[in-house]
Write a structure and sequence with these properties.
The chain is α+β, with helices and mostly antiparallel strands and 120 residues long. Helices cover 27% and strands 31% of the residues.
Length: 120
């Protein structure tokens, strides 16, 4: 007995749907696993304005690594302030075009002389 074309099409579409749902679940699992392994970053230096409006950057005083700082909802340090921060690698794109993007989880001012005008 031959199956009608509509039954074959229904089975084919069902298989495609199952494959698509399985792929999406796998992708979510991979993203959540990689997010849980976000690297902790500790650095200190002077906060400076980035080249893009509203962006804050900091060059680590020891490694000379340039960081693009995201502070979330809390209080942000002023430009020209020396800070020590702890954060995690930022996940996703940013509008700031400089440095390694970091979501700052905590920061504190430190005693360090910052240049009055920094060029990054």
């Amino acid at each position: 007995m031959k199956e009608p074309f509509s039954q074959k099409l229904s089975v084919f579409l069902a298989l495609i749907l199952l494959f698509a749902l399985g792929s999406e679940a796998q992708g979510k699992r991979h993203r959540s696993h990689s997010a849980s392994r976000a690297r902790t970053i500790n650095a200190s230096g002077c906060v400076a304005a980035g080249v893009e409006a509203g962006c804050l950057v900091l060059t680590d005083s020891k490694t000379k690594t340039l960081y693009n700082l995201f502070f979330g909802r809390g209080k942000k340090p002023q430009i020209g302030t020396a800070i020590r921060f702890t954060g995690t690698e930022h996940d996703g794109p940013t509008t700031c075009m400089q440095g390694k993007a970091v979501d700052v989880t905590k920061w504190a001012p430190v005693k360090m002389k910052c240049p009055s005008e920094q060029t990054q």
